[in-house]
Amino acid sequence: MASRTPYPEAARELLRQTLFDAARHHLETRPWSEVTMGDIAATAGVSRQTLYKEFGNKSEFAVNLTIHEGERFLGAVEEAVRAHTDNPRDAIRAALELFLRTAAEDPLIRVVVTDDGSGGMLPFVTTQGMPVTTWATARLSAVIEEGWPQAPKHEVKLLAEALVRLAISYITNPSETPDSTAASVAELLGPFIDRALGAA
Question: Which domains does the chain show, CATH number per domain?
Answer without folding.
Answer: 1-56 (1.10.10.60), 57-198 (1.10.357.10)
